[in-house]
Amino acid sequence: MRLVIMGPPGAGKGTQALVVAGVLGIPHISTGDIFRANVSAGTPLGEEAQRYMSAGEYVPDSVTNAMVRDRLSHDDCRPGFMLDGYPRTLEQVTELDMMLQSDGVHLSHVVELTVDKDEVTQRLLKRAQDQGRVDDTAEVIRRRLEVYVEQTAPLVAVYREQGLLVQVDGMGSVDEVTARILAAVDA
Ligand code: AMP
Fold it and tell me: Per mean pLDDT, which range of 10-14, 62-66, 72-76, 166-170 is the poorest?
């Protein structure tokens, strides 16, 4: 099972990706988590990524693509994977296609979690309080939602055209949403 999960910041992608990957026994690959781990460890990649993350902007495609290419080449991804937060731009879509093509495999489904805008803003502000993420301030949240609409929302149409898109209502309890995702991907 090779899955991508997408949706606006605050849609619950990270939570759901982790649970669903656990149920399916595939690695959960979150580009945001990998960037944050590099920021914490003070690596050069982390230093570069932080400049963009703290402003709510995307890390450049060249950096992000190289990181994902490396991660997907690990043996644990052979049976499948759950990509969370990647691809986020059209260039990343093309790059992911090439990575998979060179391995002779393809995506199984792209899950889009849908939520309403007020709800995601509330969730993000709550997460800011709970986890203290530097990119969860009101101003940066606004920018992250804008960037999502500009750069990532267009990917939905691309994946719909490819017949890969499944839309899942992201409102409700964690368990309810997980059950919907598993049903949508025929797991
Ligand atoms: P996330 O945890 O998925 O919300 O990601 C947090 C931040 O990491 C984003 O706001 C971006 O700055 C950066 N990031 C994560 N994934 C990507 C990606 N695929 N392309 C560019 N930047 C990304």
Answer: 10-14
Into how many domains does the chain fold?
1
The reply to whether ligand 1 has any atom less than 6 angstroms from the CB of 88 is yes
CATH number at residue 142: 3.40.50.300
Could you tell me which residues come within 8 angstroms of residue 178 by beta carbon, excluding any fewer than 6 positions away? 16, 19, 20, 23
Active site residue 144: yes
Of the candidates 67, 68, 85, 84, which has an alpha carbon nearest to the alpha carbon of residue 22? 84
Confidence class for position 44, pLDDT limits 50, 70, 90: very high
Tens digits of per-residue pLDDT, 110-131?
999 999 888 888 888 888 888 8
State whether the beta carbon of 52 lies less than 6 angstroms from ligand 1: yes
